[in-house]
Amino acid sequence: MEYSDIHYAQYVQILKEELRPAMGCTEPIAIAYAAAKARSVLGVLPERLLVEVSGNIIKNVKSVVVPHTGGLRGIPAAAAAGAVAGNAEAELEVLSQVTESEIVAMAEYLKSTEIQVRHVDTVHIFDIQITAFTGDNSAVVRIVDYHTNIVLIRRNAETLLEREIVQAEDGLTDRSFMSVEGIVDFAESVELSDVRPTLERQIAYNMAIAEEGLRHNYGANIGKTLLHGHEDSLDFKLRAYAAAASDARMNGCELPVVINSGSGNQGITTSVPVIVYARETGASEEELLRALTVSNLVTTHLKTGIGRLSAYCGAVSAGCGAAAGIAWLQGGRFHQIAHVIVNAVAVTSGIVCDGAKASCAAKIASAVDAGLLSLSMYREGNQFYGGDGIVKKGVENTIATVGKLARFGMEQTDKEIIALMMEN
Questions:
Q1: Alpha carbon distance 139, 156 (integer Å)
Q2: Strand, helix or coil at 357?
Q3: N or C: which end of the chain has fewer CB within 10 A?
């Protein structure tokens, strides 16, 4: 792909947009971000908060630990953390500078302040609106479709910002041109200085939290469990490091991660196995950066049709991305990578998303395992063919089918999952 090709600049920009640092699970962090912004607009610490959210936000915030809160969980905790100590200018790292005294203040604020949570019926799968009240004054902040997309800011009766919601992810670079063939072409030809800062940050952040997850006890310790007794197995290492990063992230670790498609777990899954594989096999820095370009863009391509949040587990797409990156490191190019993606999708498309929590680490391990199986299948000359279940002839047709399945076919499944989760 030539530097002058319009898609070259688009691919570079997509990586910059998607591979952003975030501290903690991104949905509670988005609530904290909205609350911090509302407090800033109000000008004082709110006396009362109303948090109105779509069902998928409830699903992804209910069970996860909010970092820098002393172990607090849930929507009220995320809103309190943002209101008391959030730095809205830091966006998805809104809670990165919290002090010990502020953690104490959060707990007190949570006990003494009315924080009402309301499940709203909205056409937007991702929808957060926080109204902060003090005396006769109020401030409203609304985020729609993705984690930093503020579409409304209001103070009392004055509208300070209002953007029309044209379509999902309006304001981001168009992704409709993306293809696996184009991604591989871009990864082969990209000037590394255009992507190195973005990818090196991903390597540093995501490997740091993976190593933290293996050093200490977090959640169900999926990563440590996988690695125990298999320390010399590369396949187990690939799964264990990715799972350990999620163990830590889902259970209150205060290290940041670099996300993909709005999700830290997807950012972890699409990158950590590729990094570990490259290091264990002696790949060069250039090879690693190009492989990560493949893995990240394949994940983003798959997620574009699915959407940021759905009943379809995001680790599945990220596992496909990781397998694509490892296939590239093994010498595979478009033809081989396309078959690996189709194989992986055929294996794991039944995994549902029932919110962010400790078991995400196990789903990540399963998704990485499916990717490794898909690689092995292709090396042995085996594959799934069009007509095998949801598999279609051609990788792009299969990806489009997965997007339809996840976005439309699983819509009712998503509603039922949310209803079941809200029962307790």
A1: 6
A2: coil
A3: C
Angle between helices 285-306 and 314-329 (to 10 degrees): 150
Please give the chain's pLDDT, 424 residues, in tens.
888 899 999 999 999 999 999 988 889 999 999 999 999 999 999 999 999 999 999 998 988 889 999 999 999 999 999 999 999 999 999 999 999 999 999 999 999 999 999 999 898 989 999 999 999 999 999 999 888 999 999 999 999 999 887 655 557 899 999 999 999 999 999 999 999 999 999 999 999 999 999 999 999 999 999 999 999 999 999 999 999 999 999 998 989 999 999 899 999 999 999 999 999 999 999 999 999 999 999 999 999 999 888 888 989 999 999 999 999 999 999 999 999 999 998 888 889 998 888 899 999 999 999 999 999 998 999 999 999 888 999 999 999 999 999 988 988 998 898 888 887 6
Amino acid residing at 368: V
| pTM for the structure as a whole | 0.90
Nearest alpha-carbon partner for 339 in 298, 286, 367, 308: 298
Q: Where in the chain is the domain with CATH 3.30.1330?
A: 23-162
**Residue the block writes with tokens 């957060």:** 128
Tokens at 271, concatenated: 């990158």
Alpha carbon distance 11, 1 (integer Å): 11
CATH superfamily, domain 178-421, is: 2-methylcitrate dehydratase PrpD (1.10.4100.10)
Report the alpha-carbon angle 225-314-329, nearest 5: 75
Q: Phi and psi at residue 18, in whole multiples of 5°? A: -85, -35
Question: What's the CA gap between 205 and 202, in Å, rounded?
Answer: 5
Q: Where in the chain is the domain with CATH 1.10.4100.10?
A: 178-421
CA dihedral 198, 204, 209, 213 (to 10 degrees): 140
Residue 247 CB partners (closer than 8 Å, separation 6+)? 213, 218, 219, 220, 221, 222, 223, 224, 358, 361
**Quick check: 70 and 144 in contact, CB under 8 A?**
no
d(CA 365, CA 368): 5
Question: Tokens 């293996």, residue?
Answer: 214
